[in-house]
Specification:
The protein is mainly alpha-helical and 112 residues long. Strands 1-2 form a two-stranded antiparallel sheet.
């Protein structure tokens, strides 16, 4: 069974993966008439995930629509890709640290 910190990291990484899929879909639909940018409110959804709620996908607020009704901003999506990479790397590093501690405790138990 995972400890609470590991479960929290897992939920965090699930949200990072979900946002990555949304950003990829937004980029893929950058030229689809009428397509509206989809996203999650990351901070809010992370808190909700810690309480067991499923993330809620929303239309990204405050984006200007072009004449064809599409509101995807490639600059915004590329920024979110970079932000997501940072989030993933940080969570991955933390996860590796948790794993090393568990592995160390097991090794000490075998030697002790």
């Amino acid at each position: 069974m995972l400890d609470p910190a590991s479960r929290d990291i897992e939920r965090y990484m699930d949200l990072v993966a979900m946002r990555q899929k949304l950003v990829a879909a937004n980029i893929a639909n950058a030229h689809t008439p009428g397509y509206k940018t989809r996203d999650i409110d990351f901070q809010f959804e992370y808190q909700a995930a810690l309480e067991g709620s499923k993330p809620d996908v929303i239309e990204a607020p405050g984006l200007k629509s072009r004449n064809d009704g599409n509101n995807v901003s490639l600059d915004r999506e590329l920024r979110l890709l970079a932000e997501n990479a940072i989030r993933f790397n940080a969570a991955s590093s933390f996860w590796k640290g948790e794993y090393r501690q568990i592995k160390s405790a097991i090794q000490e138990g075998k030697n002790g």
